[in-house]
Amino acid sequence: MNITPSSSDCLDVADLLVDYAEHSLPPEQTARMAAHVANCPRCQERVAQLQELGANLKQPSP
User: Fold this and answer.
1) 47-56 long-range contacts, Cβ below 8 Å, gap at least 24?
2) Do residues 4 and 36 touch, judged by C-beta distance below 8 A?
3) What is one Pfam family matched by this protein (predicted)?
4) What does pTM read for this prediction?
5) CB-based contact 10:17 (threshold 8 Å)
């Protein structure tokens, strides 16, 4: 059964999205975030955007 998280669930994890996208959370928080993101298309998109931004920032400037 796939349960879509509520907006309040997203607000609860919003402050952790950047750290989650950068793989810099402790294991317990990573597990909590992974469970949320697995069932939340909105947060999946945000994590993908943050990871893309991080990758772009790591590339040398032309």
Assistant:
1) 47/17, 47/20, 47/21, 50/17, 50/18, 50/21, 50/22, 51/21, 54/21, 54/22
2) no
3) zf-HC2
4) 0.72
5) no
